[in-house]
Design goal:
Distance between the termini: 92 Å
CATH topology: Glycoprotein, Type 4 Pilin
Number of helices: 1
Shape: elongated
Radius of gyration: 35 Å
CATH architecture: 2-Layer Sandwich
Strand content: 15-25%
Number of domains: 1
Structural class: alpha+beta
Strand order of the largest sheet: 1-2-3-4
Order of helices and strands: HEEEE
CATH class: Alpha Beta
Number of strands: 4
Length: 160
Amino acid sequence: MNQMRKSTECSNEFQQPEVISRTQFDQQRIASLALAGVMLVLIVISVVRNVDRYEDLNVSFRYIELTDLVEPVKESLEMAILSAPAVDLNSFESGIAGLPDEVLASEEAHGLSVIDGRIIATWMKDESDLDGVTYILTPKIDRGEVKWSVTGTCSEKKAC
């Protein structure tokens, strides 16, 4: 009879760890699901908080098209300003001193003009969130160099 108790005791010892491991498995599974839920909530919060940043980045990225259009005109105007014997910024206009002719914004093209030495670029009429937004560069002579200040409605759109 002593042998039977030993064998029963042994079998109880082996069965008990199965119950514990099953419980531990369930606890680990619940913990894993809880962690996955927390991670999902954090991702959703991050996406919701960064939607505005994504939209701003998208606007800035698209707006590069207009700023790239201005670069050659900016370089031409800068050369004309620095090579002029007397600097009168009001004398620099579209179509004068090697500057391109004025282009009005339309459904097919962005607008671009030089008025009183200022470069004014306007986003095309495409009914987008950038429709009619302006990018204005104003030159200033400082110690023989041209410094540019940026104004226009592009700052409201966080594009410039």
